[in-house]
Amino acid sequence: MSKSLYVGNLPWSATEESVRSLFLNEAGVDVEAVRLMTDRETGRSRGFGFVEVADDQVEHAIEKLNGVEFGSRALTINEARPREERPRRY
Fold first, then answer.
1. What is the pTM of this model?
2. Mind listing the domains of the chain with CATH numbers?
3. Out of 8, 57, 76, 85, which residue is the most buried by the measure of CB atoms under 10 Å away?
């Protein structure tokens, strides 16, 4: 089973591969999937994403990587919460 981690304050130059490497090299955590959020209109990074890791590695990843500098920015890492339902905008 896996859990999703929220990764915030990412540099806009971050790629899925660079985030995967960060988790593997800095925390020794195997990553199952990486999703970086992008702006629909411009395709530019929104500065956050989600990383799927095994249940037993969640706490270790948060402990090792929360606050670590990546691309001159201090990362924010915590367990992802379910997406809230929002009214549709027209």
1. 0.88
2. 2-79 (3.30.70.330)
3. 57
Angle of helix 16-27 relative to helix 58-65, nearest 10 degrees, comes to: 90
- With a CB cutoff of 8 Å and minimum separation 6, the contacts of 3 are 52, 53, 54, 55, 58, 79, 80
Query: Contact at 8 Å (CB) between 10 and 85?
Result: no
Residue 16 φ/ψ region, left for φ over 0, alpha for ψ in the -120 to 50 degree band, beta for the rest: alpha
* Paired sense of beta strands 2-8 and 45-54, if any: antiparallel
pLDDT in tens, 9-18: 999 999 999 9
What is the residue whose two structure tokens read 């001159």?
72
